[in-house]
Structure prediction request, 336 residues.
Amino acid sequence: MGKRKAEDADGGDPMPSDGAPTVGQQTSFIKNKVVRSMRYQKLKHEKNKKKKAERKKREKELARAEDLGLEPPLKKVPKTIENTREADVTMVQPDDEEVAAEEDQDEFAEHFKSVRPPKVLLTTCYKPSGLMFKFISEMLEVLPAAVYYKRQGFPLKKIVEYAKNREFTDLMVFNEDRKNINGMLLIHLPDGPTAQFRLSNLVLSKDIKGHGRASTHKPELILNNFDTRLGHRVGRMFASLFSQDPNFRGRRAVTFHNQRDFIFFRHHRYIFEEKDQKERGKKEKSKVVKARLQELGPRFSLRLVSLQKGTFDSKGGEFEWVHKPDMDTSRRKFHL
Prediction:
């Protein structure tokens, strides 16, 4: 039982909102399998019966409040891994003047002041497959300021110098192993930093049901849940790939959504459609404008592996942050 408690405290499922032990915790100490199973079923039945009664009570209170024109009762907020995350001293508040002063002088400051517009160079590993070329062509649609250069056997340090001399602002290198695209290296030029990501769950546009085709308009950028100092830095790296003056007429939106240190990339177009809607109590239908999202693709997930100061240096580079296995001691501890 002590082991079970330790698992629940470190990385198990969130405890119930009332703090009471779960059904599994109440029966885990019973050694006899048959008795334990019967006891578990009985407790589970009682718990479901209680929840059903509470749900009916809430529904009655809600209906009564609507009839009397009163404010509905507050809904209970369920405990999730996100809202029970461990406290992090590096969390950034919106009015943090110290962080704002640092970001005003960091490597990305010129981009956010619109002094240095983005110019991105895309390249690949040494022997890219046909899948990689399809992926690169879609990333060129996502990034209007990007151009593709063939690797041609050049080492990465020479490519970095080449990009610096031609005033590129960023370098993106995609890696694949056995026709599986599994990595991305993002280098901000000329002075870094360099971020290495593990790439997974890639889905190209042609495999997305009902996908659209991207236009040449500059997209809007949405960054979600990059809340720590490290998260702010990574978010600013992504933001430096896109222009600060998006064309809203194109209705394109690129999203980097961070959830539990996994960064989900999505590319959408929002569409306004006029539809007929029948109002309650009326026979005639009225015209209503509704908005919906159409995914353009591609979609993939990223996981930060390391963040290095300066440009790429595999031997003498100084790292700001490196992911290590012993960091994953709790499911409620996040770094971004």
